[in-house]
Design brief:
Blueprint: E1 6-9, E2 15-18, E3 21-25, H1 29-40, E4 44-49, H2 56-63, E5 67-69, H3 72-78, E6 83-86, H4 93-102, E7 106-109, H5 117-130, E8 134-135, H6 144-154, E9 161-169, H7 185-188, H8 193-209, E10 213-221, E11 235-242, E12 247-253, E13 262-269, E14 273-277, E15 283-287, E16 293-296, H9 304-307, H10 320-335, H11 347-365, E17 371-372
Parallel strand pairs: 3-4, 3-6, 4-5, 6-7, 7-8, 9-12
Antiparallel strand pairs: 1-2, 9-13, 10-11, 10-17, 11-12, 13-14, 14-15, 15-16
Helix pairs in contact: 1-10, 4-5, 5-11, 6-8, 8-11
């Protein structure tokens, strides 16, 4: 899945080939992850920009870019990039995405795509109008065992699916002294825990089941007082029903001591049930009336859709960065117009999770009133 070239028209009218030129906007943890995935996919990370002009060189060093720029306008005018990775705080996504699309670049934008549904819809429309590849890193889709789960559900091996349950638990904000830009709604948006990680869970469930969350009842809580006058939620509990009538429950928390990044989901069916845990990604639990089994990631035994993402032999563990690498490589395949890989999460998927987040906030504000998710 390595990108080897990007074809453009040369001044002479002939085609020349070169590796994709990539820019990273934002030099935090996610910026570093994006840059590493870009390099592994065969791209050249040629440019980076930080939040302040004086931080340009530091941003370049942090993500391993050839050059740092004082602002995004200068980068887009001078660097000649093909793909822009937007890894800024949430409230700055829209401005960066619009600028990149206007400059003719393809875009990978961190989630949430925007801080509200109107803005997210506008960005999705702008990407379509520009004719650019525009993706959002819902990277848990790229675990081989997630693809195996999706394949088995699509084949009907679960029988009639009745319930979906699970959660996404972290502890990095479990202490009163923990702080981050995400707790400030001016920068991070009106939702924190759900927009940050609940969105991943909802995207994953809709992806593997092919069924959409239709309506929901939510409660949220803020455990620790934060400096902001409008504190965002530390945790959320959601009940939901899908368009097909499947019932579901979800617990999201960033104050669950001891849980570092536990996304887990269980799909219960009349013929088989399945459970996946992102912290144990090499395995898929399969439950049956006559006995249970645990499938281990093995490209020799997985379905073709899952084996494609098993880049290492069985027994050689794959994890989060491997998922990110696969997502970025698939995005670049679309940029190259080699193909449009199945399951590539686009701005439409980013918009979808923003609308689910807004429904959660509306329901929680109305004491858990059942609320439909906007289409």
């Amino acid at each position: 899945m390595t990108v080897t070239h990007l074809t453009q028209a040369a001044d002479s009218g002939r085609a020349e080939t070169r590796t994709p030129r990539v820019a990273v906007v934002g030099a935090g943890f996610m910026g570093r992850v994006h840059a590493e995935a870009a390099r592994r996919a065969g791209a050249s990370v040629v440019a980076a920009v930080a939040s302040t002009p004086e931080g340009a060189d530091r941003a370049a060093r942090t993500v391993g870019a050839e050059r740092g720029y004082p602002d995004l306008d200068a980068l887009l005018a001078e660097a000649g990039v093909d793909v822009v990775h937007v890894c800024t705080p949430n409230a700055r996504h829209a401005e960066a995405v619009r600028a990149a699309l206007a400059a003719g670049a393809h875009v990978i934008c961190e989630k949430p795509l925007a801080v509200d549904g109107v803005e997210a819809a506008s960005l999705a429309d702008a990407a379509v109008a520009a004719g650019r590849v525009a993706t959002v890193p819902f990277v848990y889709r790229f675990h081989p065992m997630v693809r195996e789960l999706r394949s088995r559900l699509a084949d009907g091996q679960a029988g009639a699916v009745s319930t979906v349950s699970g959660g996404y638990l972290q502890d990095w904000l479990s202490r009163p002294t923990d702080d981050d830009w995400r707790v400030d709604p001016v920068v991070g948006g009106p939702s924190r825990a759900f927009a940050d990680i609940g969105s991943h869970w909802c995207d994953l469930v809709e992806f593997v089941t092919g069924d959409r969350i239709h309506r929901l009842s939510a409660q949220t809580t803020t455990v620790h007082a934060r400096p902001s006058s409008r504190p965002t939620e530390d945790a959320a509990v959601v009940q939901f029903a899908t368009e097909a009538g499947v019932l579901g429950t979800l617990v999201v928390s960033q104050v669950a001591a001891g849980r570092k990044n536990r996304l887990h989901v269980e799909v219960s069916g009349t013929e088989a049930s399945y459970a996946f845990d992102q912290e144990d990604p090499e395995r898929l639990w399969v439950g049956g009336r006559g006995g249970n089994q645990v499938l281990v990631r093995d490209p020799q035994t997985l379905s073709p859709a899952a084996a494609r993402y098993a880049r290492l032999p069985a027994g050689h563990a794959q994890g989060y960065q491997d998922c990110f690498d696969a997502f970025v490589a698939d995005t670049y395949r679309a940029v190259l117009d080699e193909d449009r890989p199945d399951g590539l999460p686009t701005f439409a998927d980013g918009l979808r999770t923003v609308r689910i987040t807004e429904a959660v906030l509306r329901s929680a504000a109305a004491a858990g009133e059942w609320t439909e998710v906007d289409r």
